[in-house]
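Section 4.2 – Deliverable D4.2 (structural model, holo form)

The reporting period included a commitment to supply a predicted holo structure for the target in complex with protoporphyrin IX containing FE. Inputs used:
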Amino acid sequence: MTYEEHAYQGGLVPPPGCPAHRAGGGPGGGELLRLFGPEAEADPAGFYEKLRAEHGEVAPVLLHGDLPAWLVLGYSANLTAMRTPSRFSRDSRRWTEFRQGRVAPDSPVLPVIAWQPTCSFVDGEEHRRLRTAVTDGLNRFDRRGMRRFVTRFSDQLIAGFGDSGRVDLVSQFAEHLPMLVMTQLLGMPEEYGPRLVEAARDLVKGTETAVASNEYVVESLRRTVERKRSDPGQDLVTWLIEHESGLNEEEVLEHLRSVLLAANETTSNLISETLKMVLTDSRFRAHLSGGQMTLPDALDQVLWDSPPFMLVPGRWATGDTELGGRAIKAGDMLLLGVAAGNADPVVRPDLDTPLFGNRSHLAFGSGPHECPGQEIGRAIAESGIDILLTRLPDLQLSVEESELVWRGNWMSRHLTELPARFTPRSELYPQQAAGAAGAAAGAGTGTVGGAGALASTPSAAPAAPAAPGATVPGPRSAVRPPLPPAPPVVPPQRRGWWSTLLARLRG
Ligand code: HEM
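Output (structure tokens):
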């Protein structure tokens, strides 16, 4: 019996652990592949090509808990799924696996696919109402203003390691810059920045402290919203509160949370991968300095070859339909294979051909849900890298390229470190050395308490969650003013984020 027959005959889907999932279950008689675990995560590109060779444009795969899904591999099939919401909805409550109670409460897919009241999970008129509030707000930031923020925070981060001549560009630069800038766009006190970086990093790692980290993020946002109601400003929090779409309290908070997290993880990844390309690929360094290739070109090449989201979960079929020659049943889940679509031989017969100026990659999605923050993400990455290369012109990798290591999961993969060296430049920003301590010392040591040194607006910050591996603050923390006393992160009577989420799922 084929996978489809077994899975969908009479609407029945085999329970997790069913042998049909393991042997002879694929349409070609082959074994169905799991989208998680060592094989898929060690070499995602090779894994996608193996699937493409066996199944073509759309492949059946298994998610954690052996939940079935369709991975869209073809460029054009991805565009169809993204641009046809009448057939492929964003509403995860349609998923057959949810409806039939087969998703375990602790399933690692839940944090990304459990339905939330945000523009990411709705279609049609409701999507337009919610998304307009976000896009109207994001569009009010001009590029020059963004560049000012990026310059300030890049300089602070560089000052934190500039006198040492050595840096890990992932943990001391790329993982910090986007969140520091985003706190400014949201109108949050600067002191929240470094702690939010730690909480956001912890949250996506899915560790045992992930729920506490998420609550820290939500509580920081809740306090900012409360403050902005009585003291509005020129920031996204104020604009969401005041928008004519009339977002309620929960919608404001959920959109702020998803903007913050969507922006942070993706932009950090884009910065790391672009820096890696600039430092390891001699063509790029030569082209950049010779003016043949611009930094925006390098960013686009990375968005084609190493998109920050390798796949986007997901879309859910509104009725029985067809995609890439596959019979898709109502309620099936589609995973949009952004990285696989970008490497589709139909659109890129030779992956080595440079794609200067070509922005038709799938990295930001397409259709009604296309990323509304792409200009901001690009601006943070481009300005940040530009400032780094300008301040440290002899920056170079301090390990062999072959020693670089990526850590991955089913949705994305990240460089764990990008060690580099340069001529020490302590003379550049003596006035910022203290200001950099909070961000850069925290970056270097994994410290979560490095908030005070960046603070300019006195305001109570919620207690930071303990990140795994958090260290005692290093010597630089001595220059930080003590944090104000913190109230409990989540008042006892308030329902936890996770239980709210599960309640929603269960309808
Ligand atoms: C460079 C980094 C970024 C990448 C690669 C990226 C990628 C994406 C992708 C693939 C989607 C899903 C599209 C779909 O479902 O079809 C998305 C949605 C979204 N992104 Fe981004 N993003 C980035 C930066 C940002 C930034 C900086 C912000 C906010 C300032 C942001 C806010 C959002 C929001 C709110 C959505 C949901 C839109 C909707 O469902 O209507 N993103 N992004």
